Amino acid sequence: MLDENKVPLIQVEDMKKYYPVKGGIITHTTGHVKAVDGVSFSIMRGETLGLVGESGCGKSTIGRQLVGLETPTEGRIYYNGCELEEIRKNKKEMERIRTKLQMVFQDPYSSLNPRKHIYEILAQPMLYHHISEKSTVEQDIIKILDMVGLPRTVLGRYPHEFSGGQRQRIGIAKALSLNPEFIVCDEPVSALDVSIQAQILNLLKDLQKELGLTLLFVGHGLGAVNYVSDKIAVMYLGRIVEYGEAKEIFNHPKHPYTRALLEAVPVPDPKEKKRGRKLLQGEIGSSMNPPEGCRFHPRCPYASERCETEAPVLKGSVHMTACPVVLSGTEVASHG
Ligand SMILES: Nc1ncnc2c1ncn2[C@@H]1O[C@H](COP(=O)(O)OP(=O)(O)OP(=O)(O)O)[C@@H](O)[C@H]1O
Ligand SMILES: [Mg+2]
After folding, report:
1. Which of 42, 95, 179, 213 would bridge 8 by S-S if both were Cys, CB 3.0 to 4.6 A apart?
2. Domains, the chain, ordered by start
3. pLDDT above 70 covers what percent of the chain?
4. Of all atoms in ligand 1, which is nearest to the CA of residue 61?
5. Helix %, strand %, coil % for the chain, to 5?
6. Cα(179)–Cα(102) distance, integer angstroms
7. How far is the CA of 62 from the centre of ligand 1 (A)?
8. In the predicted model, what is the mean pLDDT of residues 329-336?
9. Hey, whose CA ends up nearest to atom 6 of ligand 1?
10. DSSP sequence for 231-290
11. pLDDT of 33-66, one tens digit each?
12. How many helices (H) and strands (E) does the chain have?
């Protein structure tokens, strides 16, 4: 029998997601956006994997494939050792698994029906999926609201009557209401002000521990991601360029892109300016026509001729990096 603690809850093998681009008067496909272009990783039960990278690198696309909202163009996703595409063939089983795979969005307003009050928003899916009975659903909802720090008085209110932070708590309650095992938190704090960000991050961290949840935490910056994650994957233009233990990535980044991301973490120290932090120049390239070789080479201060032609693969056993120029750790000592 499979020991479920030894099988990753989520396993991704060489996943690609290409979106067709239409053009012309007669709409035909003129190319593809290679949003995700060959990523592999796994997340053990009870673990939080942080996914970071600039806007447009494919983070949300990965999230949507993992919770079954979309199907990858190529590659495999395993949930608890079973391939998601196989599960999908059995409609009833897929419906059950979909409740186990939830998503918390950056803008919870978009996932909350503005015409329904909070009781309806939470109760309907719980009843539909037989997670609760009519006679107990209100009590069950009150317990969930309590977990996310909201009073029972919110039940009769509508989404627009809440602040951003409160709305995100409702978004988290909605995800929790279906007894999930895995939650993709897609930039859940990016739209909130700094003090509220800390509250929501702490809430997610506590819930993860308390309920033994497995999380994929998506973020732009390494600061927040490092705070909640056990492991971190750094993405650049559809690929993972560095992967490892969160502490290790944060304190000893190897890939020049990860180093550049760390340079972008604000430091409340005026002397930092004088030390000349190397901030990332230029724009993330096009995912329709990604650069040949290493996709980061046009922006990389260490790029050599080899980087223009050779696409580096993710190498290493624990701390993995996709860069042949693995730099010495001393240059980033200021982050240690
Ligand atoms: N449905 C779609 N059709 C076509 N292109 C898409 C679609 N969804 C995403 N893309 C493209 O795929 C790429 C990756 O998008 P994605 O939303 O995954 O990025 P992201 O890393 O989440 O960015 P952000 O940090 O801004 O949320 C982008 O170039 C985007 O324009
Ligand atoms: Mg996104």
Report:
1. 42
2. 10-115+181-335 (3.40.50.300)
3. 89
4. 18
5. 40, 20, 40
6. 9
7. 10
8. 38
9. 19
10. EEEEEETTEEEEEEEHHHHHHS--SHHHHHHHHTS--S-THHHHT---PPPS----SSSP
11. 999 999 999 999 999 999 999 999 999 999 999 9
12. 12, 11
Percent of the chain residues past pLDDT 90, beyond the cut: 73
- Whole-angstrom CA distances from 259 to 61, 81, 252, 286 are 24, 34, 9, 21
First to last CA, the chain: 43
Residue 2, pLDDT score: 52
**Nearest CA, atom 7, ligand 1:** 19
Q: Say how far apart CA 183 and CA 104 lie, in whole Å.
A: 7
Cβ pair 291, 309 in contact under 8 A: no
Over residues 191-228, the pLDDT tens digits come to 888 889 999 999 999 999 999 999 999 998 888 899 99
Of 57-66, 96-105, 185-194, 234-243, the one with minimum mean pLDDT is 185-194
Residue-wise DSSP of 211-229: HT-EEEEEESSHHHHHHH-
Bridge partner list, 236: 239
Q: Which of 30, 39, 57 for a ligand 1 pocket mutation test, highest count of atoms within 8 Å of Cβ?
A: 57
Pairing of strands 182-186, 214-219: parallel
Q: DSSP state, 113?
A: -
